[in-house]
Amino acid sequence: MTQISPENTEETAIRNLMTPELHESLDNALKTLSEREREIFTSHFLDGTTYFDLSLEYGIPEKRIGRIVQNAKSGLRGVTSLRQYLDMIP
């Protein structure tokens, strides 16, 4: 899978925000997503996998990957302890 560079603002923002409390909140919130949503969301945001690479891996169009990522992000925004952090991520 393709890794994004440390200069990428999304990756930098996520890494800077990963306090122990946030990590625990994120782990709990991710459990509310389906397995596929969780895998795609974490692969994209935490591992830096591109929509293109995810589309190849899952055999679905990039646009669908984008919708899955955005739906997962929207669902996670419902978790009060994560809302302020997710709003910082484009």
Q: How much helix is in the residues?
A: 55-70%
CATH topology: Arc Repressor Mutant, subunit A
How is the main sheet built? none
> In CATH terms, what is the architecture?
Orthogonal Bundle
Mean pLDDT, to the nearest integer, reads: 79
Order of helices and strands: HHHHHH
- Say how many strands there are: 0
Q: Helical element count?
A: 6
**What is the end-to-end distance?**
21 Å
Give a verbal description of the structure.
The chain is mainly α and 90 residues long. The protein has a single domain (9-86), classed as Orthogonal Bundle (Arc Repressor Mutant, subunit A), CATH 1.10.10. Helix content is 69%, strand content 0%. The chain has six helices and no strands. Helix 3 crosses helix 5 and helix 4 packs across helix 5 (62-77). The radius of gyration is 13 Å and the shape is globular. Mean pLDDT is 79; it is low at 1-6.
Write a compact overview of the structure shown.
The protein has 90 residues and is mainly α. The chain has helices at residues 9-17, 20-30, 35-45, 51-58, 62-77, 80-86.
